[in-house]
Design brief:
The protein is built from 12 helices and 8 strands. By secondary structure, the protein is of the alpha/beta class. It has one domain: Rossmann fold (3-Layer(aba) Sandwich), CATH 3.40.50.
């Protein structure tokens, strides 16, 4: 009887273990992801081109559509050009839409660099020169918005207009707060981010996370096996330092080009909820007031990643602005 009970318990334990494994496999969709050797293996929604710039950087980009107006799209911190795929798909029906991977990101080269906003602005200028682009619109999301603003300050003759999607740069940070950013962002910290934090970080970008945003999580997890992953982590850290080291808030009045500002009313990232708790609309209005030729659009029930969560609202605002 005793042996029977032992066998019964072992069989029951084994059965429960099997059920647990099966259940874990069902609720954890990240067990069987591809392992990329390098970032070039990450699938993109459009054909990728590359161009070499004067500073030995090879910039990856997509180039879709035709039209009298050209828009260059610049992604945000830790992101890549596929973040604009819903906008390119629609806006390329009327305009030439070019999205780039910043140096250190995506399929672009990953040589060490300063991460300064002025560095990225020079890259944008060199890229425009390489493709012989003049009088263009620059669309920037989050950090890409701050890069767009710095580009407008440094190379005003290049631009016909700015399109800012939840831009960084409208928020004021004290010296102590800037030091906090520098301390909290490290290469190892980015490199060793656990899967749960990767999920949470992405969900925090949305008011209601779209189901088709899942690729941003799976790509971020799968790229950890890539040979150039650590260089990407370095670029992310340098970019954070670059944003706090080159603030633009006090210089916005110098930008005379037309500017479209689009924010989601439910942005969880701007303003920084830990350092500057408050309302997104107030930050948006601060930047709007300082930019002399700007239009502000607030999208309801929309978070920080507004161009992906609410592409219809964003694309409509862009079309009306360019017209």
């Amino acid at each position: 009887m005793k042996n029977y009970s032992t066998i019964h318990r072992n069989v029951l334990a084994g059965f429960l273990l099997m059920l647990s494994i099966m259940a874990f496999g069902q609720i954890n969709p990240y067990m069987k992801l591809p392992e990329y050797n390098n970032f070039d293996e990450i699938p993109y929604p459009f054909e990728v081109h590359k161009v070499k710039l004067n500073n030995a950087i090879e910039l990856a980009y997509v180039d879709e559509g035709k039209g009298d107006e050209t828009i260059i799209f610049i992604h945000g911190l830790g992101s890549y050009l596929p973040a604009w795929k819903k906008n390119i798909a629609e806006l390329s029906k009327d305009y030439r839409c070019i999205a780039i991977d910043l140096p250190g990101y995506g399929k672009s080269s990953k040589l060490p660099h300063s991460g300064k906003m002025s560095f990225y602005a020079e890259v944008v200028m060199q890229f425009a020169e390489a493709l012989k682009l003049e009088k263009i619109y620059i669309a920037g999301h989050s950090m890409g918005g701050q890069i767009a603003l710095v580009t407008a300050l440094a190379y005003p003759d290049l631009l016909k207009g700015l399109i800012l999607a939840a831009p960084a740069g409208f928020e004021y940070f004290t010296p102590g707060q800037k030091e906090w950013f520098r301390n909290v962002m490290t290469v190892n910290g980015v490199k060793l981010t656990p899967v749960e934090a990767i999920q949470t970080n992405l969900y925090y970008n949305f008011y209601k996370t779209p189901e088709d945003a899942e690729f941003m999580i799976t790509d971020r997890i799968a790229m950890r096996t890539a040979s150039d992953f650590e260089a990407y982590c370095y670029a992310v850290v340098q970019s954070v330092n670059g944003m706090v080291d080159e603030p633009v808030l006090d210089h916005l009045g110098k930008i005379k080009t037309p500017v479209l500002i689009v924010f989601g009313e439910n942005d969880n990232l701007i303003p920084n909820r830990y350092l500057n708790p408050g309302f997104t609309k107030k930050i948006a209005q601060t930047g709007h007031a300082k930019l002399p030729n700007s239009t502000l659009v607030m999208l309801p029930k929309t978070g920080h990643f507004l161009q992906f969560e609410n592409p219809d609202g964003f694309n409509k605002a862009v079309k009306e602005f360019i017209k």
